[in-house]
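User: My instructor asked us to take a sequence, write out its structure as tokens, and then describe one feature of it. I'm not sure where to start. Here is the sequence I was given:
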Amino acid sequence: MGIFIRGVPHFIEPNVTTEEIKAILPHRPPMLLVDRIVERTEDAITCEKTFRAEEYFFQGHYPEIPIVPGVILCEVAAQTGALLLSGKMSLENSVPVLTRLKEVKFKRMVHPGDVVWCTSSISEQVGRAFYLTAVLKVGDVTAATLTFAVSPAPKPQLASD
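Assistant: Let's start with the prediction itself. The structure tokens for your sequence are:
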């Protein structure tokens, strides 16, 4: 259902399931890092990820005071961006890949039980590459910000047995 916020159409998708996200992204657990799409417009998307205590990386990343690794937060942003680009990028015989990270800033630690909302928005398109910005928040507090690029890459031909 579409609604307007500040005169801009927003498409709320509160019932997008993990299976529907899997139909778009090539990622699978434990590397599927988007639980649901909260909101999507033409040029921006907000997704949610709840970090559970049993996530594999908490076992060895500061196990006494577990925190989500920064690279995992960057991957949340990349997957959120890939979901946004799914309708804009032709992916026949290709997959969306992260090709650049810039201006990455970590501002708040993320712990087990935290719910992260990631908003990724398109800054520019150059050829087949899309440049995006992302803000990851826990509640009203910014946890990380970054700019990144996503481009389609040919699907590798895997050797069959």
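For the description part of your assignment, you could build on this observation: The longest helix spans residues 70-85. Try explaining in your own words what that tells you about the chain.
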